[in-house]
Every structure is written in C-alpha cells, then in structure tokens.
Design brief:
- The structure is a single chain.
- A 5-stranded mixed β-sheet has the order 2-3-1-4-5, with helices on both faces. Strands 6-7-8-9 form a 4-stranded antiparallel β-sheet, with no helix packed on it.
- By secondary structure, it is an alpha/beta fold.
- It is built from 8 helices and 9 strands.
- It has helices at about 25-35, 55-60, 90-95, 115-125, 145-155, 205-220, 225-230, 235-250, and strands at about 10-15, 65-70, 75-80, 100-105, 130-135, 165, 175, 180-185, 195.
Length: about 250
C-alpha cells in the first residue's frame, strides 16, 4: 500500500507526569487547538476524549495509556496520554518504547513529585528526548522558577526556560515566548485560543534578562551557537530554535 503520510512528517509524542499534574487536560488542549475536537474536554466533567474507559471517567484519573492523532504544521502527531499513578507505571514503560519524544507535565505548585522522578528515569532508560511543561500557573502557590530549580536539583535536567509566565496565581494572564519575544494572552473562556499581545512594559526587563540567560546556557552546550556568540554575531530566533532542537534530541 502507498503510505498516505510521509514517515518523516510523523511524530510519536508521549505525555508523562505525576498523577494530577494535568496530563489529560493538557492533551485535551492539544486536540482542541489542532482542530481535532471542537470543544475542550474536561476530566472533572467526564468529557475528556482521552479518558475513554468508564472507570477513568468515574474516578477522574488515567488508568491505561490512550492514543490519538492530530495534525499541526504539515506534521501528523500521534499522542499517547499515559497514566500518572504509580500503580499503572507499567503502562508508561510500554509507551516509552515507541516514542520519538516526551512532554513531561509538572505542577507549578507541587513542582517535581515522586512519580515525576520515576517517569524521568524511565525516559532516560529508553533515551527519549523530552521537554517540560509547567502547568497550573493559575493555582495559589504556583512558582515557576522554583519548579525549574527543582528540575535541576531532583532530575539533573539542566533545564532552561524558553517561555516565562505572564503573572501567576489569580494574576496569571498568559505566557511570553523568550525566543521571539512574543506574548500570548489567555482568555477566561477555555474554548477561545490565546491571542498574540505586545510584551507588557513591566515585563520587558525580565524578558531581556531571561532571554540572555537562555542564549548563554544554550551556547555553553552547543558549539555552533557558541561560535556565533563569541564572534559577536547577531543571534536570531532561528539560531536559538536550531540549538534547542539539537540539544533536546541529544538527550536521547
């Protein structure tokens, strides 16, 4: 049979985390923003696409790994939403064997939790490249930078933010991309996509400081970016993205 989608445009991505970090909720956003679903599903309401078992809908937890497909920028993305409870860790291990990459979801309040460490070690064992997504920035006690420092301490992750939060807790408004300096403002309605917005004046100094820290840390670990950095060349967004890609893939 003729392949209907080029293999080099297919990605197998796993969502992995401690229980209640928000893996399924994040996956539901993926499906909505890529046009796979017309409405954001909610775990608490039992309407999440990925919680397909009656027991999962009843208890509000993921019991078995669930897979689905969406499309983004000419790529086919196969998403595997894995359980977070330690009792179902074998499901995570099975899934890791087939992944091209993983998204590790962390709770901004709790930071790196016990099962976060377990799934991280499992991903190390199977050499799965991964990025981290810090969730629940709107909760009381959310601390983005403390969570990043916990990743360094407990996961030995050598983490560097590529986005920073715009506010926190009840004042959380959105995120600011440090690579291209764009801000994204979230709506109170989950079914309304984020809107691009100018970086607020009060955040510009911290954005500049974090972007410089991002470039320096990447340059320390990437020869191509280091060469450009020491020669005083202009470091553009494309250079930063290429370095992030090379270093992320090198994890595996």
């Amino acid at each position: 049979m003729t392949r209907t989608f080029p293999l080099d445009k297919v990605r197998n991505i796993g969502i992995i985390a401690h229980i209640d970090a928000g893996k399924t909720t994040v996956t539901e956003r993926f499906l909505f923003y890529t046009g796979r679903t017309y409405k954001v599903g909610a775990v608490d309401e039992g309407t999440a696409v990925m919680d397909w078992m009656a027991q999962e809908r009843e208890r509000g937890i993921t019991i078995t790994a669930a897979a689905t497909t969406c499309h983004w920028q000419e790529h086919r993305i196969n998403i595997i939403d894995t359980p977070g409870h330690v009792d179902f860790t074998a499901e995570v291990e099975r899934s890791l064997r087939v992944l091209d990459g993983g998204v590790v979801v962390l709770d901004a309040v709790a930071g790196v939790e016990a099962q976060s460490e377990t799934v991280w070690r499992q991903a190390d064992r199977y050499k799965v490249p991964r990025i981290c997504f810090i969730n629940k920035m709107d909760r009381v006690g959310a601390d983005f930078y403390h969570t990043v420092s916990m990743m360094d301490e407990r996961l030995q992750a050598n983490a560097v933010p590529i986005q920073m939060p715009w506010g926190k807790e009840s004042q959380f408004k959105g995120v600011i991309n440090l690579i291209d300096g764009k801000a994204w403002l979230f709506s109170d309605d989950v079914n309304v996509p984020p809107a691009e917005s100018p970086v607020p004046e009060e955040e510009k100094e911290e954005v500049a400081r974090n972007r410089q820290a991002l470039i320096e840390k990447l340059a320390e670990n990437d020869d191509q970016l280091m060469l450009l950095y020491v020669e005083g060349g202009e470091i553009q967004s494309s250079h930063i993205k290429a370095a992030i890609r090379r270093l992320t893939l090198a994890i595996g």
